[in-house]
Design goal:
Helix content of chain B: 40-55%
Distance between the termini of chain A: 33 Å
Number of strands of chain A: 2
Strand order of the largest sheet of chain A: 1-2
Domain OB-fold nucleic acid binding (chain B): 5-101
Helix content of chain A: 25-40%
Main location (chain B): cytoplasm
Strand content of chain A: 5-15%
Protein name (chain B): Exodeoxyribonuclease 7 large subunit
Subcellular location (chain B): Cytoplasm
Structural class of chain B: alpha/beta
Number of strands of chain B: 13
Distance between the termini of chain B: 180 Å
Radius of gyration of chain A: 19 Å
Largest sheet of chain B: 5 strands, mixed, barrel
CATH class of the largest domain in chain B: Alpha Beta
Order of helices and strands of chain A: HHEE
Order of helices and strands of chain B: HEEEHEEHEHEHEHEHEHHHHHEEE
Structural class of chain A: alpha+beta
Radius of gyration of chain B: 63 Å
Largest interface: A-B, 42 and 46 residues
Number of helices of chain B: 12
Oligomer: heterodimer
Subunit structure (chain B): Heterooligomer composed of large and small subunits.
Strand content of chain B: 15-25%
Number of domains of chain B: 4
Shape of chain B: elongated
Chain lengths: 103, 401
């Protein structure tokens, strides 16, 4: 996983307010959805705002890390087919299943 | 004296009494159709509803009749919703129909309408309740029969759009006695698992009876209670169930539900590529902006022409220098003029000039100018200055005036 912790805390001011610069929130992985959202705001800021150079570079760095992350999320997605059942005692059970379907 | 009614008065009163009976308004009647006539010119339907013992005339106006989804005919058992009114002109009580269904389905239909009304009043169909279908779900949940065509349809569509999309099937019978319970449990199970971002509930087309599970309250409530957004895809496009109303999104078919739920993988990849490109060009734009800003500064003032200030100072110095010279010249010229004037004046006052006119000056031995005879003694040596030359004289006589 990528560790991109540098931005933490340092970006609580100014333009960074609107953009969450930490690509990892705690231990929770960023979903594709929020990854895309953050990328959108970073890219918009880069495209529209006149940023101090260091900030622009920081945005770029975080953006690239997010792109990397989203791309990894996509690439790591693995077709997984499961059936969700329930034990008599109420425990959830995941069972692999396969379907022959023509593409 | 008993009241004597006019006919229209009495008929009018009967009409009013009928209208005041709330259970005669918007009520349901079941019976057999006879004398059914579709009046071609107006499009209204005229018929008689009857059972073993009685009959009642009925009318269904064109605007309502157009919505009836079957073709009525004599002998058909039907269930009709409408209002009981009097037809003043003939003094006959007629049933003004709003809705008509074949009787076999009538019970189900009635139940459907009643549940729909009840849940609508509870606000279960409100648009504000609808959860947003996630654009990029990590895993799709499916509630349907594990053996039906629906699961295959969905898997086919998913395979085409996003071959890597993981999915989790919560199997449930979709028709029969156990179906409502199983569907509700499957939805609850997926919610408990928290493993999916969106749920598709579906079954293929069928008769109203076959789709019935999706018109039950237990299924409706389990959909409403789901924290995970649900897409309902029951039957064909024309079949609308209660589940469709409660769900966050209605899809006309299970395949369409999969289209709505599953993003296209190459679109996502393209989107990421787009972000990558925009990041790069965004940063380049930032740098270019700085570059232009810098160029703007460099093109202005002293940075553009470093000798400009020196040249300017030099020019100023030259100007001052010239002014100094001019000033000096003028000063000297002015003074010269004054000098000449003074010289002329001085010349007029010069004693030599006076002597030239025949006057002379007398001095004593010490060279002091003599102004009075009292200042000299007899035999003193004095000097007389003439216009030309000087005399040395001896005082031989003196007289003080």
């Amino acid at each position: 996983m990528m560790a991109f912790e540098e931005g933490k805390g340092d970006f609580s001011e100014g333009l960074a307010d609107t953009i969450n610069m930490n690509i990892l929130e705690g231990n929770e992985t960023i979903s594709l959805e929020s990854g895309f959202e953050r990328l959108e705001s970073i890219v918009k800021a880069l495209e529209q705002k006149d940023l101090p150079l260091e900030k622009a570079l920081e945005y770029f760095k975080v953006g690239v890390a997010l792109v990397q992350h989203c791309s990894t999320v996509l690439n790591q997605a693995e077709k997984q087919m499961q059936v969700l059942l329930e034990d008599p005692d109420g425990q959830l059970q995941y069972q692999p299943v396969s379907y022959d379907v023509k593409g | 004296m008993p009241k004597i009614w006019s006919v229209s008065e009495l008929v009018g009163q009967i009409g009013q009494v009928l209208q005041e009976r709330k259970d005669f308004q918007n009520c349901w009647i079941s019976g057999e159709l006879s004398n059914f006539k579709n009046h071609r010119a107006s499009g209204h339907w005229y018929f008689t509803l009857k059972d073993e013992f009685s009959s009642l005339k009925g009318v269904m106006f064109k605007s309502r009749a157009e919505r009836v989804r079957f073709v009525p005919s004599d002998g058909m058992k039907v269930i009709v919703r409408g209002n009981l009114r009097i037809y003043d002109r003939e003094g006959t009580i007629q049933f003004y129909a709003e809705e008509m269904e074949p009787s076999g389905l009538g019970q189900l239909y009635l139940a459907f309408e009643q549940l729909k009304k009840k849940l609508a009043e509870e606000g279960l169909f409100e648009q504000e309740r609808k959860k947003k279908i996630p654009a990029y779900p990590r895993r799709i949940g499916i509630v349907t029969s594990p053996t039906g065509a629906v699961i295959r349809d969905i898997i086919n569509v998913m395979g085409r759009r996003h071959p890597k999309m993981p999915w989790l099937l919560a199997p449930a019978a979709v028709q029969g006695e156990a179906a409502p319970q199983e569907i509700a449990q499957a939805i609850a199970r997926l919610n408990r698992s928290e493993a999916v971002d969106v749920i598709i509930i579906g079954r293929g087309g069928g008769s109203l009876e076959e789709l019935w599970a999706f018109n039950t309250e237990i299924v409706a409530r389990s959909i409403a209670a789901s924290r995970i957004p649900i897409i309902s895809a029951v039957g064909h496009e024309t079949d609308v169930t209660i589940s469709d109303y409660v769900a966050d999104l209605r899809a006309p078919t299970p395949s369409a539900a999969a289209e709505l739920a599953v993003p296209i993988l190459i679109d996502l990849e393209f989107q990421i590529e787009q972000f990558r490109a925009r990041l790069r060009s965004g940063l380049e734009a930032q740098i270019e902006r700085k570059r232009q800003h810098l160029a703007g500064i460099a093109n202005k003032g002293p940075l553009r022409d470093p000798f400009w200030r020196i040249d300017q100072n030099r020019q100023r110095l030259d100007t001052l220098h010239m002014r100094l010279q001019e000033g000096m010249t003028r000063f000297v010229n002015e003074k010269n003029g004054i000098l000449k004037l003074l010289a002329a004046k001085l010349d007029l006052l010069s004693p030599l000039t006076i002597l030239g006119r025949g006057y002379s000056l007398a001095y004593d031995e010490e060279g002091k100018l003599l102004r009075s005879a009292a200042h000299v003694e007899l035999q003193d040596q004095i000097y007389v200055q003439l216009s030309e030359g000087r005399l040395s004289c001896k005082v031989t006589e003196k007289e003080i005036k």
